[in-house]
Design goal:
single chain, 29% helix, two-stranded antiparallel sheet, 22% strand, Rossmann fold, 7-stranded mixed β-sheet, alpha/beta
Length: 235
């Protein structure tokens, strides 16, 4: 864990509900592509980040967990519309951020849902978001490479945002596939997404993309790793 992510547990535990009435703070709002789910999201994530750093008195990791990123939204929509993919199965949400994909899996009837993120603030936010939706998600603080993947379905949203992260993600996801998991990826078509190693299962139009971090991208995709259990055939 980097110094930017290393914060005290007491501070982390209260973050997701801090500043409830502040216009620059967090609000519990529906997710645009999956309004069945509500998340604690920042009105302005940049302002929130500046406030967190001011309070901490030091540099901090960007609060990615305070935005509903497009790939996670696409995964949530896909899982909610096809609950048979996760119902009765063990699901893991990697690099989970707000936890939206894992929460969707729990709502869709997964037997258990775990989530991981390198940012302890994200872990705290996942817990608050899960409680807000009346579901259970077991969240842990860990990098993707350190997670022991023991799940039937692995969900990964918005992990292909840089060459190093894309390489790390593929290493982890191929490891999960080798263990027999179905691997589903949510992404708006970023440049570092290895398209030749993934099959597109669904595409969603996202005219609101400017509000969630990828203003130049209007289409969101759910993809499956080639060789992942079940092949590319999804009802």
């Amino acid at each position: 864990m980097t110094a930017l992510h290393n914060r005290g547990s007491a501070e982390v535990g209260e973050l997701a509900t801090r500043w409830p009435g502040d216009p620059d703070g967090l609000r519990l709002v529906p997710v645009p592509l999956a309004p069945e789910i509500r998340l604690h999201l920042a009105t302005d994530a940049i302002v929130l980040w500046a406030r967190m750093e001011a309070e901490a008195g030091s540099a901090m990791a960007a609060p990615y967990w305070a935005s509903a990123w497009p790939g996670g939204q696409a995964l949530a929509r896909f899982v909610l519309d096809r609950p048979e993919l996760v119902a009765g199965r063990r699901v893991m949400d990697l690099a989970a951020g707000s936890g939206v994909a894992g929460i969707a899996a729990s709502l869709a009837g997964a037997s258990s849902v775990s989530a991981s993120d390198i940012d302890p603030y994200a872990v705290a936010a996942i817990g608050e978001n899960a409680r807000a939706n009346g579901v259970a998600v077991a969240a842990t603080c860990a990098s993707m490479l350190d997670v022991d993947i023991d799940a039937d379905v692995v969900l990964v949203g918005d992990a292909f945002y840089s060459p190093p992260m894309a390489e790390t993600a593929m290493t982890v996801l191929e490891r999960a596939t080798a263990r027999g998991a179905r691997v589903l990826v949510g992404d708006p078509g970023r440049a570092d997404l290895p398209r030749d190693r993934l099959d597109v299962l669904a595409t969603y139009w996202a005219p609101y993309a400017a509000a969630i971090g990828d203003a130049e991208l209007d289409w969101l995709h759910v993809l499956q790793l080639k060789g992942s259990r079940g092949g590319a055939t999804v009802p």
